[in-house]
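dumping this here so i dont lose it
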């Protein structure tokens, strides 16, 4: 038997943060939804039942919370910071996907949100 691709994820984490191009967005803030999906080898954890043999989604949540707490103009910048930090702190991660949605974007449209999605492959360089 051989394991196929495996992922750990945090879906739709709600965070109040201060990101945006307009000064008011960085001053007043707004609600965001962040999803994170990381590719990992789960072979060892699936046999051992030990959290040390995997990447804890609670630890991933902390990375997201800490990076979202740093105001930025662009969500692309925030997503890149999150992805790079995940790869740096968790070397077993082969790939990380980050999605950030601004739930009430100030663009004069009725929508569920607007945002970015980014995928970073951890080539270990």
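and the seq i came up w/
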């Amino acid at each position: 038997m051989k394991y196929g691709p495996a992922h750990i994820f945090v879906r739709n984490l709600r965070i109040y943060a201060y990101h945006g191009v307009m000064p008011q967005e960085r001053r007043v803030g707004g609600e965001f939804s962040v999803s994170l999906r990381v590719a990992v080898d789960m072979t060892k954890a699936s046999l051992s039942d030990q959290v040390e043999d995997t990447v804890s989604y609670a630890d991933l949540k902390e990375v997201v919370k800490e990076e979202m707490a740093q105001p930025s103009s662009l969500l692309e910048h925030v997503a890149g910071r999150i992805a790079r930090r995940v790869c740096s702190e968790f070397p077993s991660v082969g790939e990380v996907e980050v999605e950030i949605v601004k739930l009430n974007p100030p663009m004069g449209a009725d929508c569920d949100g607007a945002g970015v999605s980014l995928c970073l492959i951890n080539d270990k360089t």
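The helical segments are 23-28, 43-48, 57-68, 75-89.
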